[in-house]
Amino acid sequence: MFSGPRLRQSFRRPQAWFVTLFCAWWVLLAVFYLFPGIDIAVAQSFFHPIDCGANTVAGRICGSFAYSSEGILIALRKFFFYLPVVVAIVILMLLLENLQHHGATYDAGKTRRYSIALTAFLLGPYVLVNLILKTISGRSRPYNTDLFGGTEFFTAAGTFHGSCVNNCSFISGEAASAGWLVCLVVLLPARLRPVVGPPLLLLCLVPASLRLSFGGHYLSDVILGFLSSAVVYAGVASYFEMTQTQKKHR
After folding, report:
1. Which residue from 17, 108, 115, 118 has the least number of CB within 10 angstroms?
2. E strands along the chain, which residues?
3. Is the overall model pTM greater than 0.85, yes or no?
4. Can you give the three-state secondary structure of 19-36, one letter per residue?
5. Positive or negative, the Cα torsion across 217, 21, 184, 98?
6. Residue 50 pairs with which residues in a beta bridge?
7. Residue 30: which residues within 8 A CB-CB, separation 6 or more?
8. Helix, strand, or coil here: 204?
C-alpha cells in the first residue's frame, strides 16, 4: 500500500496519471454502455417536444433542442470551437521562438512542454477523436435519432453499430478540445496552477455543456471526449519522459 507522501510522489510522474486516467475512461465507458438510460435522460432534459399534428405518422416524436437556436449561445459555441486552434498556434509560435535560442538562453524544458502540448493536441482531438472515433463509431447524434425527432436509431456508447456514417456523435470533438485546454495548466508555474486550474476547468465546461443543450452529443460523448484529451496528454508526457530517460542512460 502507498502511504500519503509516496502516493503524492508517484503522481508527480505522468505515467501514474496516464494509468489512472486511462482506467477511469474505460470504467466510465462501461457505465454508459451498461446504463444507456443515463444518456437518454440527460438529452431529454434539453429536448422540447411539440404536437406533431394530425397528418404525422403514428409514434413519431416531434420537437427540438431549443437552445440550439439561441444566437448568443451559437456565437459562444463558435468562440470555443476556434479557441483551441488559436491557442495551439500561439504555443507553436512560442516553441519556434524558443528553438531560435542557443546556449544559455535556450530552455530545453520549454521545448519539451510545448512539444508535449502540441503533440497531444494533434493525437487527441484531431487524430483519435475526429479522424478515428467519429468516423467509425456509427453513433447518431441525439437530434438525428427517432427519440428526438430524427429518423435514425439510438445506440449506447461504445456499441459501434449505429447508422451514422461520418462525423458521428461518439465522442465529442469540441469537448476533447476543451479538455486539452484544461491540460495546458501544466504549462504554468506550479504556484499558479491551483489558482488558474479551477476557473479554467469551469470555463472549459461551457462548450461541453453547449453540445449537450444543442442536442449534438450525449452526456457520455461529452464526458469521454473531455477525458480523452487528459489521457492522451498524460500518455504523450509519459512517452517524452521515457525517451528522455533512455537518452540519459546511453
Report:
1. 108
2. 48-50, 62-64
3. yes
4. HHHHHHHHHHHHHHHHCC
5. negative
6. 62
7. none
8. helix
